[in-house]
Amino acid sequence: MTNNDSAVVLVSGGMDSATAVYEAMDRGYEPYFLHASYGQETEDRERECAEWLAEEVDAANFLHIETDHLARIGASSLTDEEMAVADADLDSDEIPTSYVPFRNANLLSMAVSYAEANDCSAVFIGAHSEDFSGYPDCRPEFFEAFQQVITVGTKPETDIELVAPFVEFSKTEIAELGLELGVPYDHTWSCYREEEPACGTCDACAFRLQAFQALGERDPIAYAERPDYVEE
Fold first, then answer.
1. Smallest Cα–Cα separation from 77: which of 57, 55, 115, 103?
2. Taking the model in full, what pTM does it have?
């Protein structure tokens, strides 16, 4: 801990960020929630989940930022109605169409502003190893570089640590930790396509279902399909 025992947590409404909230609290931080709507297909459902979680954990504050600049920039199937969200290909090394160009830099910049204004000593983000295999702004090197941006771009007396606690975790390891911490996964949303029920076949659904299946647990949210993503 540094100046304060509070932390800004980027909360998308999904399972990774919800687990990051519980991890931050387990480390002794009081969470300040930052949720962004940037034109993603399932933004209403994601916001609903984030707001519910903020109330559930009695967050110090819930800041919702609504911006359309990432959608206006385009080039992502999450924000461009003319681009289809692809079915999952968990073995692909290609950057998926769901990649939102430099999104995490945008979100982290807002989170650092929020943290500095509230004298928080950390910013948490739930990115993990299966993210950085496809998304360049989820790589450990990106977060290390962004820590330097925070250090040189804030007031001399400001001391904010960028924490990506799951950056070397698989989705299965996150789910396992979350179940141990009591994360209410029934109030999280991961699907890129639909707000209810989840499609079960996009990348986000596939990684999520695979994690629960690997643990022998049933994912508590509703799906239109529940393919088996665990290899024998």
1. 103
2. 0.94
Longest Cα separation, the chain: 54
Topology, domain 6-174:
Rossmann fold (3.40.50)
Q: How far apart are CA 204 and CA 202, in angstroms?
A: 6
160 within 8 A of 122, measured Cβ to Cβ? yes
- Distance in angstroms (rounded) separating the CA atoms of residues 222 and 217: 14
Q: Which residue has the tokens 């003319």?
A: 82
Q: How many CB atoms lie within 10 A of CB 133?
A: 14
**Encoded tokens for 30:** 């009081």
Domain coordinates in residue numbering, the chain? 6-174
Neighbours of 44 (CB within 10 A): 13
Q: Read out DSSP for 163-177?
A: E-TTTT--HHHHHHH
Specify the residue for token string 């999280």.
188
Give the chain's end-to-end CA distance (angstroms, integer). Answer: 44
* pLDDT above 60 for 133: no
Interval 44-76: pLDDT, tens = 999 999 999 999 999 999 999 999 999 999 999
